[in-house]
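example protein:
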Amino acid sequence: MARPASRSSGTTRSRATRPRRANTSSSSRRRSPRRWPDSDKLLNIEHFIACSDIDDIYFDRPYYLAPADPVAAEAFTLIRDGMKRKQVAALARTVLFRRVRTVLLRPHDAGLIATTLNFDYEIRPAEEAFDGLRKRKIEGEMLDLARHIIATKSGTFDPSSFDDRYEAALAELVKAKQEGRTLPKPKPARPTKSGDLLDALRQSAGAGGKPPKPRKPPKPAAAPRRKAS
């Protein structure tokens, strides 16, 4: 849990910890060059921006921020509540792991979240990534199919339901080696054609491609013939 204390309107002293476990080692700290900046536990707020101006593609890692002591709680609460009411976030600079980083401060629950931001040169432009994609107009059956899939697959965000398949597979591999077993090799995925993919989407959505032909009603049984008297 982070413990910051606001010293002024634009400067905050804090100790930040990530919501998830940080991977650091004493050997890497010993090898760090002395010319790297030392952390002074200060957050220097540069300016406030509207939450709608934030592009989450620049988000890196979140850290919790909370007051370090009761004296700092009043100033901390003032900044937090003011940001909530104005629906703004703050851009600040701080030293994390001997590197000056820009962080985004946002109100979160009873405290703040400081999210480190990627540098602009680290983000690939969307125009470059999506270059060559043709503009298509989806309508008719395909649009109805997309709506049906979204409606049938709607759910809620539940991080506890996420599966770390890599960790599970690694644990199974270690267990198999300890027991002297050999795990079967996974079958390579078969390349799928676009037509096959659309058929699979129809089947998964229950559309099923072509509707089944209606059965013809059975012919009525012929009335028995009467013998002539």
